TrEMBL record:
PANTHER family, alphabetized: CRP FAMILY TRANSCRIPTIONAL REGULATORY PROTEIN, DNA-BINDING TRANSCRIPTIONAL DUAL REGULATOR CRP
Keywords, alphabetical: DNA-binding, Transcription, Transcription regulation
UniProt source species: Roseibium salinum
Keyword DNA-binding: yes
Keyword Zinc on entry: no
InterPro entries xref list: cNMP-bd_dom, cNMP-bd_dom_sf, Env_Response_Regulators, HTH_CRP, RmlC-like_jellyroll, WH-like_DNA-bd_sf, WH_DNA-bd_sf
Domain of life: Bacteria
Chain ranges of the HTH crp-type domain: 170-243
Domain Cyclic nucleotide-binding: 36-139
Protein name: Crp/Fnr family transcriptional regulator
Length: 253
């Protein structure tokens, strides 16, 4: 798959996988953790796969829910999964969109306690489910797998730390501009001087990621469009001026 990267004012396409998406200041860190099992040998990876069970979910289905008891983790083999938190009022904030190579269901990988957030399916997925008991057996018998899990949890910790930093130090306008930059970087296709975001994402989705309302997102996207930064029409989003949009990440409108 080709992923468009915009570096130093020039859009270039490089062979890449579909990246995870979450609010972060550092674009290069977005997909850290996707290869957390890469240190395993082929035989070790086969052992891990044999310990799990394959499960499939359709778009819109929930994988686990806030308040459920932890029972294990799911490795994403195909598709995309959203993790999100719902407040007492029912308002949701999207934590991340996870893709192939990542896992969901932490941090209590051995089971126990309750999930602090939920996960639902953004597109049809295939997951490998490992119970907490199976994970403990693998850790006891395969030190390299234990190191992989530590690396995976470190990546998750950095992700949520980056999210908290963005929510705590950036205005909502800056967060939206940064999210558009991230989408252009991870899901953009060069078309002339513009980047066409190939991932379909609604105003509701954008609002849930930046911590705002759909109405505010619609209004702010309209402002960006009038400035010539983007074009947004009928679910199609194009970044018309990457550098000026990037400037919006450092200065509120």
């Amino acid at each position: 798959m080709l992923s468009t990267r915009k570096m130093k004012g020039e859009a270039v396409q490089t062979p890449d996988r579909v990246s995870a998406v979450y609010l972060s200041e550092v674009l290069s860190d977005l997909d850290e953790g996707a290869d957390f099992l890469s240190r395993l040998t082929a035989d070790e990876l086969a052992t891990v796969r044999a310990a799990g069970s394959v499960c499939r979910f359709r778009k819109g289905e929930g994988v686990f829910f806030q308040g459920d008891r932890h029972s294990g983790i799911w490795l994403i083999e195909e598709g995309s999964v959203r993790t999100f938190y719902a407040g007492p009022s029912g308002r949701e904030i999207t934590l991340a969109l996870w893709t192939h190579g990542h896992f969901i269901g932490g941090p209590e990988i051995f089971g126990g306690g309750t999930h602090m957030w939920s996960a639902d399916v953004q597109e049809d997925v295939e997951l490998l489910y490992l119970t907490g008991a199976r994970i403990r057996q693998l850790v006891d018998s395969m030190p390299s797998f234990a190191i992989c899990l530590i690396n995976g949890l470190v990546a998750k910790g950095k992700c949520y730390s980056a999210l908290v930093q963005m929510l705590g130090t950036r205005s909502v306008t800056e967060r939206l501009a940064q999210l558009l930059i991230i989408l252009g970087d991870t899901h953009g296709r060069a078309e002339g001087n513009r980047l066409v975001v190939e991932k379909k994402i609604t105003h509701d989705h954008l609002a849930a990621i930046v911590g705002s309302t759909r109405q505010w997102v619609t209004m702010t996207l309209d402002k960006f469009q009038k400035k010539g930064l983007i074009t947004a029409c009928r679910g199609r989003l194009s970044i018309e001026n990457y550098d000026l949009l990037q400037a919006e990440t450092d200065s509120s409108c």
